[in-house]
Amino acid sequence: MHHKGKVSYLDSAERREELPPEEILDILPLKESDLLLDFGAGTGYFSIPAAKRTNGTVYALDNDDSMLDIIRSKALQEELTNIVPIQELSLPDHTIDAAIASLVLHEIDPLTPVLHHIQQVLKKDGYLICVELEPNGASHHKAPRVTSEQMEKAITAAGLRVIRKFYPTEKIYVLLAQK
After folding, report:
1. Fewer CB in a 10 Å sphere around the end CB: N or C, the chain?
2. Helix 148-157 / helix 111-121 crossing angle, nearest 10 deg
3. Nearest CA to 48 among 22, 13, 17, 87?
4. 159 vs 143, which has greater pLDDT?
């Protein structure tokens, strides 16, 4: 498992305490038949609880097949049959009710085309939840970061409107956008 450190963080009790996926999903007006996209699904942190809330399909997208294997294993363990692991965003336009992108969009350059593609797969009035880390001036992270203001502009430029912004922790921001 070449991602042991990453996996242990993604599934950590600390992360779950700071950012309970169920609470983030609570901001979506999900219906039983909704189709969801977990963009950058990782270990299924959002895919698994989302699949428990809907009978519709949850597309768990990650470009790392080892992460998709983890999701497959968790889905099997939880007896969830509505998770479909995918490696590319090749869904038809206007098919997804809600998309979740957690701690992944800061890694994408250029960002606008990907956000536009997410916007395209969303149904009319569909939702995007963006969860990211707010950069701070003293940060020693080598990873790229996108401020909430920059992300809001990028989301708006992609044709979505931000309808809610909040900080579940001092360093994490959540943007809820609608098509």
Report:
1. N
2. 60
3. 22
4. 159
